[in-house]
Design goal:
There is one protein chain. By secondary structure, the protein is α+β, with helices and mostly antiparallel strands. It contains seven helices and eight strands; from the N terminus they run ααααββββαββαββα. The chain has helices spanning 2-6, 11-39, 44-50, 52-78, 119-123, 150-162, 199-216; strands spanning 86-89, 92-99, 103-108, 113-117, 127-128, 136-144, 174-180, 185-193. It has a five-stranded antiparallel beta sheet. Strands 6-8-7 form a three-stranded antiparallel beta sheet, covered by helices on one side. Strand 1 and strand 2 form a beta hairpin.
Length: 236
């Protein structure tokens, strides 16, 4: 029956249906076992009453398990996350590799496997970077010394970002003059990429090029400065 139903589905759809089918199958098996015991004369009610303390302990231990399973079904049905989605949860970023009935697996940006209990997707804030589209808007921050030609800064930044193959030309990158800082004029370079999972690598390459290009054009990237005043007090 499962093969007939999933014949016209893609691989992701087949995987999703298989997980739900497995849960339904185990649920039906449980009902059949209980009905079979009852039909053979086993007093299910008396058995349950005699094992109340045991079932309370098991119930407390299984609470999270069933919460994960129910959450997994909701995830599979409403597609909260799907394979290859890039997500951020608990300040960790990962690309979804498997959506299971109890847990979801993702690979992090440093190639570690992240195993996420499914209830976290419903109980905590989840950022799905790619659910709307594979293209995402990203940025880096830059500060330059006061007195710097701001038009030159903008031109150099746009020239740098246009040379990076991972950055999309449409929509076009933009440079914003964001603030007058304590020690620097602050800029934010916005750009779009089609693979946000490798964002740290792209940002690193841009910073290398910004530092190199600014040095070549005698543009200073300042560090925070503080004036310390020492007063001598006369003790009588």
């Amino acid at each position: 029956a499962r093969i007939l139903v999933t014949r016209s589905l893609d691989e992701e759809g087949k995987s999703r249906f298989k997980t739900i089918f497995t849960f339904v199958k185990y649920f039906i098996f449980s009902i059949v076992i209980i009905m079979s015991l009852d039909a053979t004369g086993v007093k299910i009610t008396a058995l349950l009453a005699a094992s109340t303390a045991l079932f309370v302990g098991i119930g407390l231990g299984m609470q999270k398990l069933f919460q994960d399973i129910i959450s997994g079904i909701f995830i599979l049905v409403d597609k909260t996350v799907t394979i290859n989605d890039v997500i951020e949860i608990d300040k960790k970023v990962g690309k979804i590799t498997q959506v299971g009935l109890r847990t979801t697996k993702a690979i992090t940006q440093d190639d570690k496997i992240l195993v996420i209990p499914n209830h976290k997707f419903l109980n905590e804030i989840l950022f799905n970077w790619t659910q709307n589209d594979v293209m995402t808007r990203e940025s880096i921050d830059i500060g330059v010394a006061y007195g710097t030609d701001v038009d030159l800064v903008k031109a150099l930044l746009l020239g740098i970002v246009m040379q990076e193959p991972a950055i999309l030309n449409d929509p076009k990158p933009t440079v914003f003059f964001t603030d007058f800082g304590d020690s620097a004029l602050k800029f934010k370079l916005h750009f779009y990429i089609g693979d946000s999972f490798h964002l740290p690598e792209v940002q690193s390459k841009l910073r290398y090029e910004v530092y190199k290009t600014f040095n070549e054009n005698n543009i200073s990237i300042p560090f925070p400065q503080r004036d310390v005043h020492v007063y001598n007090s006369k003790i009588e």
